[in-house]
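Summary for the funding panel

The consortium committed to producing paired sequence-structure records for every protein in the target list. Below we show the first two records in order, beginning with the earlier of the two.
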Amino acid sequence: MTTTPAAPPPSPAGPPVPLPTFPRRALAYLRGAAGGLPLLALVVGAGAGGGAIAFRRLIETFTHLLSGHADYAAAGHAANPHVPWLGRWFVLLAPVLAGLVYGPLVHRFAREARGHGVPEVMDAVARRGGHIPGKVAVVKSLASALCIGGGGSVGREGPIVQIGSALGSTVGRLVRITEDRMRVLVACGAAAGIAATFNAPLAGVFFAMELILRDFTAESFGMVVLASVTSSVIGRAAFGDTPFLQLPPFTVHHFGEYALFALLGVVAGAVGVAFTRFLYLVEDGCDFAWRGPEWARPAVGGLFLGGLLLVLPQMYGVGYPVLEKAVGGGYAIAFLVLLLAAKMVATSLTIGIGGSGGVFAPSLFMGAMLGSAYGAVAREALPGVAGPVGAYGLIGMGAVFAGAARAPITAVIIMFELTGEYSIILPLMAAIALATGVSRLLTRDTVYTLKLRRRGVDLDEAPPGTPFAGLTVESVLEPVPAPLDGATPLTEAAEALARAPHGVLPVLDADGGYLGTVTARSAAETLADHVGEPLDVAAIIHVPHPVTAATDLGDALSALVAAEGAGLPVLDRTRTRLVGWVSHQSVLHALHHETREQPAPVAISRAGAGAGTKEP
């Protein structure tokens, strides 16, 4: 007789208890309702504002602990009052002690907290749906504060961007929002961090839009503004409502100065690119030279950084007092050039040995040194034309940052907000535009994107998993439909347009050169509005976004969506001759073909995971 086994006793915990009705509805509202995202942006803005305050206090604490001064960069070769018997030699040990703490901390808990932080956020937004581990905010705060407090010659913007972005990502994961909203919250955190740290709400917004999201939409812009304003209110309550840098007023005294400012923009763009190249060259050199455990790298490398600080204490930490003194005309030309070169070395070495901090403030520092030296030379060479040295220093700050980061809108706005100086906005805009152009001519990468490209990540290319990755228009070319001559009367062309399968036809000139396209819709509307008027096809030509055989299929699809008709002409390299046609149908066929050829994912059963057994 078979005995039926007794059912196992019920678990004392019982079935999972669902959330009460109110919290469940609240989460659903935040997750999907139109008013949910603004509330989350407020939360992220407030949290990032509080995080910026805590981060600045941490930097102040560690700076005073490890150097004995509020900002050792302005203290000369003074001794640390905590260890007066060491004299000025304590700077050899400050980076080492800091590295002994933050090196193991970063290596053990969050290795993405190493470096300047912004590229990691850009990658998270572009490739990982905005997912950033919450522990990054804590580790980055401690590591960057220790690094800067111990003499690391880096800035605060990279860490606070990563801290705010990690907060936004954490909030998004808790609410379980969609990826597109997650990305917006990450940008909200980045903008809020910049806004509170530098008292620059507009700069925070454009930094997030231009560098993090890399596009402008009404919804995302509104949310980022909301977070930035919230964070700024909190930051101003803690730090006051004054410009971050206190500089004297400047004006343009002579119209000839615009030529001097333009030349400064060209030089500054080249310096920004040189800084980018040198930064990663030093990082490669440190990678090649170091053979020990990664957690010890910041401490050992700190000895070399300490040696530099012993010679030039102006390189200690961020160095804003030195920057202000340079813009105020407090240094000789030769010393300004020395400080420019030394900052490039100090920042690159700090990042190369595994330090944690941003590159925005160092680029401002280098720009101030370059601009002030340039202005001093200009005053000596053209005393009747060149104005105050500080004006050139201020413009150099924005131009070098624009050359390194290639973010011209952010550069203009942040220089205005950091200084409260609007009097030289015109030469500032011109120099920044020229610096950006020079940077684009010299290199395709910025100080942020080069770090990602070295890892094999190109933000301008489609992710490897997308169906159009690696496909170009050449693979889906269709024959060119019968073109129209530009001189053809519109009444005669109407019949050909009516028979066109895509409702659009290309238009050529008498020599066969490409002029544009014309659609059946535009022809019908024009004939209805201008009855009896002698019109030809050339009167209603539309020139769509140019597509060539080498254009990525994803870009071609975007152009098709924006076009008036259902097809687009494909042009040769000169964009003057037709070589084919592309339509929604051909793109859909390519997508279907590519999807069918992709191998299906292999699911491994729990029981046969070791043997590679497929699930039925």
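The next record, for a separate protein in the list, is shown here:
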Amino acid sequence: MTAELVRGQNHTLPQTRLEIRISAGAPVVAGATLGDEQGRVAGVEWIAHPGSPQLHGLEVSRQAAADHRLAVDLDALPDGVHRVTVLLALPTGAGGPTRFGAVAAPFVAVTALDGTEIATFTLTGLDSESAVAALELYRRQGAWKVRAVGQGYAGGLAAMLADQGVDRAAELAGTIQEAVARGLARSVAPPPPRTPEGDRVRHAPAPGNGQPPVPPPAPPQPEPLAEPAAPGGPINYAHPRRQPTAPPPPPPAAPPARPGQPAQPVAGDATGWSMDERLYNQVWGMFEDLARAVAAYRSAVDFAESRMDQELERTLSDPRSRIGGAGDRAREEARAKRDELTARARESLDRDLAQLAAESAVVEPALPAPYAGWDNPVWHGYRAPMEIPMALRIGDLHLPERADLRIPLLVRLPLERGMWIDSGRTASEAAALTGPDQLRRLAMETAVLHAARLLAVYPPNEFTVHVIDPAGSAAGALAPLVRSGVLPSPPAAGAQGVSAVLAHLTRRVDLVQMAIRAGAADSLPPDLDPAEQLLIVNDFPHGFDDRAVTQLRYLADEGPSVGVHLMMVADREDASAYGPVLDPLWRSLLRVTPVADDHLADPWVGHAWTYEPPRTPPGSAVLDQVLERVAHARRTGSR
């Protein structure tokens, strides 16, 4: 029976191999400290955090996330450890909440390896605190217990570490937050919160599959639709040009299922003000479903492996079992049980994957142009839109459990962060098989496809693209943009061209910011282009002096809030001479690759997803056709 703890209450732990599961209303940093009998932490080597996630007997998450699973083996902890304190903190500099009072109360559960809850604790009553000691596992008279702590710290992670006697706590807190920032840079931003009626239908797996129980994660905390708020506030879920006056219509009904069969999928089974919004919610629902289904499968496999290890350890610890064939039989039986549990888990996963694949087969052909791949026939009937769409497809994601099940990666519009298309060699197999020159060419071609899609999904003359190509090395890849006439000026070359474009966009950012602060947005100069601006930078830092680098960092920091966005096509190694000066620039951009690479993480469980960049079908002229229609619409102002 699960013990529901309140602050200060304790409960005896029946076993020493545990999971600590954390659910929060926003991404949080999870870590743990090891303490002696007085609770003192001997040093940084007794602290597990995203920058150093593994200790003997303890492993924590490598990034900030709304859900965490911490693995604990109390018997494997270092000698002298009598206390394990689980810490939570809000990431700094991420534009999210700065105090726990602004998010849903975190929920912490101590579970067995099969998911059975032993004790739970909901951390209520937090307000200005940005860090909290959630609970502690402690040893008393040879037995381990769990205590609900809930001690918050308004001074943040540094104050909490200092309270545990950690030397140079502020320095360590900065190191931890730096590691978190690197993790957030590779994480896909979560979608806006759903209304209670906006959750999609999820079909439960068939009972009796024999899989070890894995409890479902805590449901997302719903938030009402809201007007734009200060950083950290709720995201406006309504389209900026749409003024809804009635509740959204219900999603289309799915065809009735035959007895014993799951319901047939239907495109648009999430609620929204339009079919586009329903499809957006449905795609994100599929993304989340796949992430959690694979997490449950991997957890079940880990449980099966752990159970086999425990059975072998118990059997072989008895000297009698080592005589004759008893030991061999015990090993065979343990492996057979492991294989049976793993097979059942895989069977359950395959059912979930088959259902998601069937849903994908229905949804993909129904996607509108902004969400559709370049091979979708919707592009052959392209017409310039009258309003900005909710989101934009920038590629596909998949997991190794089923590589052919691709989830469209949709990002909200207007863009909230720029993009970095990494033209350097990565650790992926695809990159290893691709030469350096080909990687650079593919990176620039990927940038052109992203820019073309942005131009196509915005109304005529509401999106402008500028290009910096200092050495002219990307002339071939840029040809579709140049010959169609969608660029307001030729790609800038040389140091003088770099300086001119950066000065132009920096001036625009300055003028718009001053007008907003003065409440005089209608007094902008007549020569200022009111459209959203995208700057594509190729071959960085070639052609950039220190002043140009500073301007580029300024555009990355201040540009998105006033409609100026960066798309960097660069190899970070080429800019290594600048050292850590450029680290904030790289972290501010969403890194994607020109070839398949498993570097992106989901916001729910932190899987490493393989990103597939967009591609046009071989021999297709769809890109040129779409850009010609975009150019025509820009010239005539018509669709």
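Regarding this second record: Residues 275-316 form the longest helix (42 residues). The mean pLDDT is 84.
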